[in-house]
From TrEMBL:
UniProt xrefs under InterPro entries: Low_temp-induced_all0457
Stretches with biased composition (Basic and acidic residues): 189-198
Annotated PANTHER family: MEMBRANE PROTEIN, MEMBRANE PROTEIN-RELATED
Protein name, as recorded: Heat induced stress protein YflT
Highest classification ranks of the organism: Bacteria, Pseudomonadati, Pseudomonadota, Alphaproteobacteria, Hyphomicrobiales
Domain of life: Bacteria
Region ranges (Disordered): 175-198
């Protein structure tokens, strides 16, 4: 399996990319979506009070992924260094170091460690994680060798972020790499960051 990933400025763009990956044959169970939720753009459809747990970094026993399709498995949780996120799929569970549905913390910044462990170059993984921290949405898929070219083509055809340009923009602000101990972005900071690129 090869991991293909893309960062998006809006959850809607990421959702479109995930659906397009499914349409070319990538199973929903092999697609992950991780989206910053500091501004509470997504709320639990069951009305569960989860935002406070996510904001304090506590784990949430939300199911991710699942037979009902990728988007049916969305759950609210917190990822160390990123903060509250809406997530589905294997990447979120790996980033959390989930055991029994509870976050146990993760080495190497959670999301970065999970991506590097799945073959994403460390430099890119740091930019992806920082992108989510600042309000973006990550789509990452484990793809069979026969589908890699098609999956990469699908992502190129979407409104994904130019990762090199975004990294350069972050570096202009003094950013060097994702810091799992950095403070979470506030709702206002996330809105400002998204507004910078939309």
């Amino acid at each position: 399996m090869t991991t293909v990933s893309a960062l998006f400025d809006t959850p809607a763009e990421a959702t479109n990319a995930a659906r397009r990956l499914e349409s070319v044959g990538v199973p929903a169970s092999d697609i992950s979506v991780v989206s910053n939720n500091s501004d509470n753009w997504y709320s639990d459809p069951d009305g569960n009070e989860v935002a406070n747990d996510a904001l304090t970094g506590a784990g949430l026993g939300a199911a991710v992924g699942g037979a009902g399709g990728l988007l049916a498995g969305l759950g609210l949780m917190a990822i160390p260094g990123v903060g509250p996120v809406v997530a589905a799929g294997w990447l979120a569970a790996t980033a959390l170091g989930a055991a029994g549905g509870a976050a146990t913390g993760a080495a190497a910044g959670g999301l970065v460690g999970a991506m590097v462990g799945d073959g994403v170059p460390e430099r890119e993984a740091n930019v992806y994680a920082e992108g989510v921290r600042r309000g973006g949405t990550l789509v990452s898929a484990r793809v069979e060798p026969a589908l890699v070219d098609r999956a990469q083509a699908v992502l190129r055809e979407t409104q994904q972020v130019d990762l090199a340009a975004r990294e350069a923009a972050y570096r202009e602000t003094g950013w060097d790499r994702f810091d799992p101990d950095a403070p979470n972005y506030t709702a206002d900071q996330v809105r400002d960051e998204r507004g910078r690129y939309l």
